[in-house]
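Dissemination and training. As part of the outreach component of the grant, students in the summer workshop were shown how a complex can be specified as a set of sequence lines and then modelled as a single object. The example used during the hands-on session is reproduced here so that future cohorts can follow it. Participants entered these lines:
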Amino acid sequence: MANLLDIRRRIKSVKNTQQITKAMKMVSAAKLKRAQNRVVSARPFAAKMNEVLTQLAAQTPEDFHHPLLDARGDQRYLVVLVTADKGLCGAFNTNLLKAAQAFVKENAGKTIEFLTVGRKGRDFFRRRGKIVGEYVGLTGKGRVDFSEALEVAHDIIKRFTEDEEIDKVFLIFAEFKTVLNQRIVIEQLLPISRATEAAEESDTANSQDYIYEQPPAEIFSRLLPRLVETQIFRALLESIASEQGARMTAMDAASKNAGDLISSLTLNMNRVRQAAITREIIEIVSGASAL
Amino acid sequence: MADQLQLEVVTPERRLLSEQVNSVTVPGRGGELGILPGHAALISELQTGVLSYNEDGTTFQLHVSGGFVEVNGDRVSVLAEIAERPDEIDAARARLSREHTEKQLTSWNGTEEDFEKARAKLERSMVRLQLATSSLQR
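and obtained this result:
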């Protein structure tokens, strides 16, 4: 049977761990709240953006061409993978990396390159894939500014327009559903598909006759990069909220486990102590009767 | 017909403003655009400048940069990349930024793309300064 002192030491160490996990849970709960607010406050802009874009799409001729719009081949993909910088958030990063790997497997015949946002994704694919660009420290501090999203978006757009060989750009990130539930999204970022626009068009059939200060095609082509920017920004915001949600749940579970462990260890310790006392009494009694 | 406009100013980060106003003036790409109730539907790009709106006789001003404006019925939606109230502007920082970019631009040796960026930055800091100082005087 274990030594009393050892058990006491163990309990103390588990208690310390529990304190840390509790604190981490609290911190991510606060960060989550902020991240959630930011996701919500970013929505009106994105919604309005889509509305205006569909309006404009209806006004631009079918043969309108733009580098971000024209379909290319189907050989080389650029995957933008948004992960966390830090661990200790349950299966959050693992799920993302798994999804990314499954994507690679599915498209085994294609050349796939990665642009990673977040340390975890970079570390994972450094050995396993080709990383052409990386951003570390964006998602780590729990908030992201639009200007930072712009930097990433412009990088992607630049790569895509300068390198005709890149056929498609995909975006993989964790969408924030609820605190307990994150959904991994794989969506095509570039070229912007006309199909989805056409589908949305029918919804806004009551399209009005707008006065355009510039030709519609011109505004349209200026708005397309904006669309990519907002998409990236949204992905980063959602990812941060998801990460904090996942961390909160993971740390909550860890604190609970530590509590369970402490109570079972305490029980064990009491048993050991009682056994020791009983043994001592027996020793004294048998010593007395021997006299 | 309503005699007021519903003005909404949103940026990717927040909804700055959502109010009933009497008139709006926005810095369109082709120059200042005045919008009164009953305006026809319109879409225009914005440039860096001052957006002002009139609410019950009082004029308010905002700094906006990038993005576009949509007028639809009695709703005016401004989607700007940057939008801020005069009291949110840090005048000292704007002045510093202006001086810095001015210096950068006078001895230019970078690429054309960076030049555009610096020029836009200079424009922004100038509008910011103008707004910040005019709101102080009042």
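DSSP finds six helices and six strands in chain A. Students were then asked to discuss how this feature might be tested experimentally.
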